[in-house]
Amino acid sequence: MKITALTVITILVLSACGGGSTGKKDSLSGNIKIDGSSTVYPLSEAVAEEFRTVYPAVNVTIGSSGTGAGFKKFARGETDISDASRPIKESEIEACKENNISYLEIMVALDGISIMVNPENTWIENITVDELKKIWETNSQVMKWSDVRADWPAEDIHLYGPNTAHGTYDFFTEAVLGESGASRSDYNAVADYNVGIQGISTDKYALGYFGLAYYEENKDKLKLVGVDNGEGPVLPSLETVKNGTYAPLSRPLFIYVNNTSVTRNEVVEFVSYFVENSAELAKEVGYIPLPEEEYTNQLAKFKEFASAEK
To answer: Which of 73, 108, 170, 174 has the greatest number of beta carbons closer than 10 A?
Structure first.
């Protein structure tokens, strides 16, 4: 009786001191595989990091092979979630159908594709959409900065951008050039955006385009360029992307969820957590959150989708 009483007292003391609760939920376990957009990657990683503090027994692995490469894996059933910086293409939809994979598209944030140069570049503050087209179009004759504007230096222009596997490449070429993939090929096409950022940050004559989050992470060694679509130059920011004035380079970001994956509780909990926390975490990693009511709609849509698959 003495031992039993002592045990009860010990438990009560530990509980009163906080020793009986860590805030972690060890009952949930499993593996979640994510791949796709390098642009969405920082948001997915931020969500996963927070999720792991609540569900430490769930192993979340995230790749960043690019939107197109991610959809290929998703269509083969190799991943539970595909990060995407553009909507799924018809060919990718067909690939999913061939493997009997259905999915749900969930919008998680907004982004602005940023035009970036080296901080030592003193001649450019803004650029027009037509000038971007002139630089990046197929068979472009722009080789020097002075080929864009006569008063810019007669120095070779060194271009950086995503390779063809990335949704940022697809979106940029469609928005600026009018056709997805209609781009010059003689530029520094990178698979890892950080390689491109490094190139621009060490080259006075470089110019490139990547997602806004990559500028936010490296703003001390990059310079943003305003984009003029005919109504005056605008820099990408939380406000200009959200209100649509940063045009035509504002876009939504998505995750796609495999229907068979939501039969697993760890995936349902993770996606729900993703939607519920995207507003706060999007701002932390340099993206623009959706309106609050939109997250409510996306969560309701997901819960209905998951319930139907149970």
So the answer is: 108
